[in-house]
Amino acid sequence: MYCQRGNILNLNNKRMKKVIISAISTLCFMFLLGTNLTQAQDLAGDERGLSTEQKVQKQTKTWVKALTLNTDQEAKISPILLERIKMRESIRNSDNKRQAMKDFKNLVENQNTQLKTILSAEQFAKYEQMRDDAVDKFKGRKKRGEQ
């Protein structure tokens, strides 16, 4: 693009290049930020608005499918998941998040001991893999600024 009066719109002008590059960069950043926020809301929205019992049912169903649990195991795991979900909710509402996280870690360790008695060795190995994958996924989201 060239204007008759001079180099006003000449792209060879360094200042104009900087302005255009910064404008394009800003637009790309805004697009990516909006996309990430939408994805984070979609992920969090899976359980938002559900009651505690609905969350337990949803997680139990996931565990039954992923670990091929029988009905006896399902009945034993549901109370464990209920306790875990209630603890997570209390952490979200806690003023002392550090202490709440310590309590949650202790709860999970105790529950893992219980799970070892409920699940077969193969199922427990799958559970540990699921847990590790979830931790990696959470850490990846946390690095990108999502939560």
In short:
With about 150 residues, this protein is mostly helical. The chain contains five helices and no strands.
Distance, first to last CA: 45 Å
Total number of strands:
0
Mean pLDDT: 77
Number of helices: 5
Oligomeric organization of the protein chains: single chain
Q: Percent of residues in beta strands?
A: under 5%
Main sheet characteristics: none
User: Nearest-angstrom radius of gyration?
Assistant: 25 Å
Number of separate structural domains:
2
Question: Strand-and-helix sequence, N→C?
Answer: HHHHH
As residue ranges, the low-confidence spans are 36-45
Structural class: mainly alpha
The residue fraction in helices comes out at: over 70%
Q: Can you tell me the overall shape?
A: elongated
Walk me through the structure.
Helices cover 78% and strands 0% of the residues. It starts with 13 loop residues before the first helix and ends with a helix. The chain has helices at residues 14-45, 52-67, 71-92, 97-118, 121-143. By secondary structure, the protein is mainly α. Helix 2 (52-67) crosses helix 3 (71-92) and helix 3 runs antiparallel to helix 4. The protein has two domains: 1-45; 50-143.
Topology:
Layout: H1 14-45, H2 52-67, H3 71-92, H4 97-118, H5 121-143
Helix pairs in contact: 2-3, 3-4
Distinctive features:
mainly alpha, single chain, 147 residues, elongated
